[in-house]
Amino acid sequence: MTLELSIAEREALVSALVRLKFNEDEVPEPYFGSPFVGEALLKLLASVIAESEEAGDLGRARRWKFWQDWSIRGYERQIVVKHAASVQAWASWSTGERRNFLRHCAAPFLLSDADLDDLITEVEAAKG
Q1: With the CA atoms of 120, 123, 124 and 125 taken in that order, what torsion angle do they form, in degrees rounded to the nearest 10?
Q2: What domain of life (predicted)?
Q3: Is 2 among the domain residues?
Q4: For an engineered disulfide with 70, which of 29, 56, 104, 109 has Cβ 3.0 to 4.6 Å away?
């Protein structure tokens, strides 16, 4: 069975999942750092952007690309840092494992290598 969703339905799903994921009161475990949820969100949003570009709706695509930029995220950044600092296994992870975990936590937002380095530094500081 193939599931087809309109752009509007995919946008609604991305918005709802991001609101659930970045709920300040309660980070939804085990979904927050899940690679499956992170990748699904990235794919949903990529499909919205690609289909918007193909349809000539460049404004919609541009708005989503801007929204996806991690550098404008303050609220979500605080939640990612707080959550990562609370993970017991953090200290035993390699830098690569930490970077992957942070990418999944931050999805569907896109992080540069510099963003990841900054986040690791912030998590280390939060852990004390």
Answers
A1: 120
A2: Bacteria
A3: no
A4: 109
